Amino acid sequence: MTSSHLPQQLALLSVSGLLPCPFCGMAKLARVTRLPPEGEPEPVCIQCETCGATGPTATTHDHLSALWDIRANTGRPA
Ligand SMILES: [Zn+2]
What are the C-alpha distances in Å from 62 to residues 24, 40, 74? Predict the structure, then answer.
């Protein structure tokens, strides 16, 4: 048996200081991090805890936050 077949776990950590969700307008946001069975946690995206919308993916938390703010400013739903 190896651990390679275990499901990957996700961790949600509340974040503040980001622009509100462009979809529902709420600022209750979480940083989603994938926790592989082995190795380093990997940033996944920013997720709105109110409506579940997710932001762009990136490989660093700083980049995730930057991308979220860019979309919150310019990526409003049609
Ligand atoms: Zn939302």
Answer: 23, 16, 19
